[in-house]
Design the sequence.
């Protein structure tokens, strides 16, 4: 339990630092914005209670808002994905359920499961983030293109991080 808290705390600090020190300065055009800090919320253990996930997600978004000066948009959207995560995990649950102490990684759940899970949550995050940011429908299709391209970019970034930093589970 304590090891998991320490591991998640280190993951939080590293992903926030990656976001605000490196990724924030990467400019891939006006349509692709990367948000790898979402990986912290994605990788919380399965048995984490829904309310705790929402509080952690809110705090994560609040920290990112402080660095990006976005007036609570990240906090709102992270809280939404923290709430949605529980239901997405329910829909994607294997027949025998999730193993205790397991985190939703590619190595533990498989590539197809992780792609479905992470792409869904990343898409929800980006959809609500960009529409809250623009807060009008006059640029609906431009914003939708931005959502899709940023979702793809963030997903690729998250997928690569999975292979670089997480070892395959020993069987």
Sequence:
């Amino acid at each position: 339990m304590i090891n998991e808290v320490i591991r998640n705390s280190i993951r939080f600090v590293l992903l926030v630092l990656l976001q605000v020190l490196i990724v924030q300065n990467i400019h891939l055009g006006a349509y692709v914005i990367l948000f790898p800090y979402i990986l912290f919320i994605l990788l919380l253990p399965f048995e984490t209670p829904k309310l705790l996930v929402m509080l952690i997600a809110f705090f994560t978004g609040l920290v990112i808002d402080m660095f990006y000066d976005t007036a609570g948009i990240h906090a709102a959207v992270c809280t939404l994905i923290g709430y949605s995560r529980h239901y997405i995990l329910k829909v994607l649950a294997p027949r025998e359920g999730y193993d205790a102490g397991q985190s939703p990684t590619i190595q533990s759940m498989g590539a197809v499961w992780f792609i479905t899970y992470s792409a869904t949550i990343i898409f929800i995050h980006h959809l609500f983030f960009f529409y809250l940011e623009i807060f009008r429908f006059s640029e609906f299709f431009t914003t939708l293109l931005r959502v899709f391209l940023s979702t793809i970019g963030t997903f690729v970034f998250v997928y690569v991080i999975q292979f670089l930093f997480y070892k395959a589970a020993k069987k």
Observations:
- The helical segments are 2-22, 38-42, 50-68, 73-92, 106-109, 111-134, 140-165.
- The chain has one domain: 2-165.
- DSSP finds seven helices and no strands in the chain.
- The mean pLDDT is 89.
